[in-house]
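A favour, since you know our structure tokens better than I do. Just paste the record in under my message, thanks.
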Amino acid sequence: MNRKLLKAYLFLITNFLFKMPKKSLKKKNPKNKKKQIKLLKIIVEELIGKQPVEIVDLLVGKKHVNEFIIAKKLRLTINQTRNILYKLSDYGLVSFIRKKDRKKGWYIYFWTLNPYQTLSLLEENLKKKLEELESLLKNRKESNHYFCKVCFIEVNEETALLNNFTCPECNGVYELADNTKAINEINDKIVKIKKEIETASIEKSKEGEEITLKKSRKLKAAKKREEKKSGKKDKKSKKIHRKMKESKKLKNKQISKKIKLKKSKALNKKSKSKKIIKRP
């Protein structure tokens, strides 16, 4: 008996595990969201400044957020928040819809963050920075640089030659600068930016996949609606056709009945007239 109970118990557990809904198994990793938020904050800070960075936390993963709620949470006036959001919309990082308040009569704006556009812009900016750093590294490796010990001013070889290797500020002699420290710093920056570009491209591809999935779902839903509508139309047309047929049949029956009645009446009249004539 115990063995049978154990088998039944195992069977129930296996069935429960395999028949679990997919949504419960596929949970989004919060670390990936944190990465994305960090990247989005970087580009917002670069474009507008440090103050509106908190706006990312308010808009990420949400749709049509009320501008008055944003203003309240940022502790800014509605005009200040609108200025920030308009600047972001100029770069295509946010989109909005507006609705008229029936009581007050003015328009309220509802804002949505565009993560794909934001990440693509960040990727472009990082690639530009990488190009600049690579050209700077090349310059550091290929040419000499000189500095003044008194003024702490560093110049390239061309400017040093123009000034006869003397500082125009203090008339001190330029000394040859050691490029190894500067080269190492640039290399570290290049490595960091390359990692940021990689993470930005990964997050961008994820967002792109989500957008395509949403679009496909919308298309499928639209197709289903159209199919339902067409099915309803077909049903309606079939019903109308049936009703038409039924009405035609009824009309034909009525006409046939009328003809039969007329014929019977005519026959009755004839029989009556014959009877009248036969009387003496």
Residues 120 and 265 are 92 Å apart (CA to CA).
